[in-house]
């Protein structure tokens, strides 16, 4: 498989973006490759070779992406290889999970304010603002997704 300079650059840019969001470098590059590549599915060896990463790093990256639901694999009759692809249907599930995570964070931060005994009104106000924003996002996100879906019909 041959990638253009533009594809390689975009894979790297996407990788850096995902690293800044907590992904390991190999995991981030695998996601970038699967998004940018002209083919919808790639084998383990194709991924390893295209990114010049070890088989161990490739295996770890693919396992993490499979476990987190970012990718999936398919097989073809007569071919024992697995073909990996981006799981593009899960974006709404991703947002629901993120909103659940933010809701949990909001709950934790409320408990922090209840438990701590420090008198820091400016810090408390900023923390309360953040909690309020998280709660606002949790309340608004379902209707935003619904509005978007209606606008696409």
TrEMBL record:
<keyword id="KW-0805">Transcription regulation</keyword>
<dbReference type="Pfam" id="PF12802">
    <property type="entry name" value="MarR_2"/>
</dbReference>
<feature type="domain" description="HTH marR-type">
    <location>
        <begin position="33"/>
        <end position="82"/>
    </location>
</feature>
<dbReference type="InterPro" id="IPR036388">
    <property type="entry name" value="WH-like_DNA-bd_sf"/>
</dbReference>
<dbReference type="InterPro" id="IPR000835">
    <property type="entry name" value="HTH_MarR-typ"/>
</dbReference>
<dbReference type="InterPro" id="IPR036390">
    <property type="entry name" value="WH_DNA-bd_sf"/>
</dbReference>
<dbReference type="InterPro" id="IPR052362">
    <property type="entry name" value="HTH-GbsR_regulator"/>
</dbReference>
<dbReference type="GO" id="GO:0003677">
    <property type="term" value="F:DNA binding"/>
</dbReference>
<keyword id="KW-0238">DNA-binding</keyword>
<protein>
    <submittedName>
        <fullName>DNA-binding transcriptional regulator GbsR, MarR family</fullName>
    </submittedName>
</protein>
<dbReference type="GO" id="GO:0003700">
    <property type="term" value="F:DNA-binding transcription factor activity"/>
</dbReference>
<keyword id="KW-0804">Transcription</keyword>
């Amino acid at each position: 498989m041959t990638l253009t300079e533009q594809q390689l650059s975009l894979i790297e840019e996407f990788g850096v973006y995902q690293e800044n969001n907590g992904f390991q470098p190999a995991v981030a590059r695998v996601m970038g490759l699967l998004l940018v590549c002209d083919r919808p599915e790639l084998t383990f060896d194709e991924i390893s070779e295209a990114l010049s990463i070890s088989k161990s790093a490739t295996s770890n990256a693919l396992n993490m992406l499979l476990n987190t639901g970012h990718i999936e694999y398919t097989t073809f009759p007569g071919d024992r290889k697995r073909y990996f692809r981006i799981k593009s249907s899960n974006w709404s599930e991703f947002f629901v999970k993120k909103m659940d995570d933010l809701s949990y964070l909001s709950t934790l931060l409320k408990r922090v304010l209840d438990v701590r005994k420090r008198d820091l009104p400016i810090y408390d106000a900023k923390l309360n603002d953040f909690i309020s924003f998280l709660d606002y996002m949790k309340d608004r996100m379902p209707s935003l997704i619904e509005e978007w879906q209606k606008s696409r019909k």
